[in-house]
Amino acid sequence: MGRSLQEFWETVKRKVSGNDSTATYEPIRVDSEPENSEYGAFESPSTSTRSPTQGYTELMGGSVPCPSCKGSGRIPKEMEETLVALIPFDDERLKPKRTFYLCSHWDRDMHFSSPAGRFFMLVPRAVELSSTNFAIDNVNVEGHAIQPQAYIKFNFMNHINVSNANYYNVQVVNTTAQIVSKFTPREHDTVGMGFNSTHMTISPLSLSENNMILFNSTVTLTDIAAEYCQQSYSRLTALYVNMQFDIVVSFLYFNHREQASFTTVQPVCCIPTGNCTSTAWI
């Protein structure tokens, strides 16, 4: 029995230190070892010895690397064909820009197709008028005189821009303008009128730069303003008179009529030739 215990301990030492050069080991049988011996807790090498690869296989057995965990996770092998790998939202394979575009359109369509969305679209919004206050350089002179009473009468085309913030078409049915002379700061004499009854359709959500309303204006200047416009030096230089345009536009939508107003001050050519871009007297 003493020899058997000695061989057993030598075998254990070789296993622990890794110096075992033998390919196989014979099991050591302890025939006369009592059950309550202090060495009874040890088992034979044939039943307790496992290689490192066997331990690793047992630890990772039945699992494979997770495709979307960047090598840091594993999933059960039997569920490899069932589980779906998680792909980040901004992955180019998913075409995130196209996905966002389609989702935004879907959300907008769902919003507008609902009762609240239809109400939102039908709520009236502003129809605004605007002008760049540009100078009117060319007019059509109908008549002028200095004696016995100074006057000059001419007509010209003016325009104003319209923007539509509604989600539906707006139809312009009438445009009028009252023209006031601003030759002197205190002067508020009405010297002409502008008018256009042509109908025009303004598209939904359109900007003012895309919608221009023309109206024909006729003006008659008298007294000191007419004398100023017909001075002899008008052959050498362009002469203008500031005029205030009080514009009112009538528009129609869903059989409902409304008006929008706008006031602008513009310089208007008033020389007898009617052309302030050229100083040649005709």
Automatic annotation (TrEMBL):
Region (Disordered), start-end ranges: 20-62
Domain of life: Eukaryota
Subcellular location: Endomembrane system
Bias (Polar residues): 44-56
All copies of domain Transmembrane protein 106 C-terminal, residue ranges: 148-270
GO cellular component: endomembrane system
Signal peptide positions (record): none
Domain Transmembrane protein 106 N-terminal: 44-99
Main location: membrane
KW Transmembrane helix (keyword) present: yes
Keyword annotations of the record: Membrane, Transmembrane, Transmembrane helix
Family assignment from sequence similarity: Belongs to the TMEM106 family.
UniProt protein name: Uncharacterized protein
Species this protein is from: Caenorhabditis auriculariae
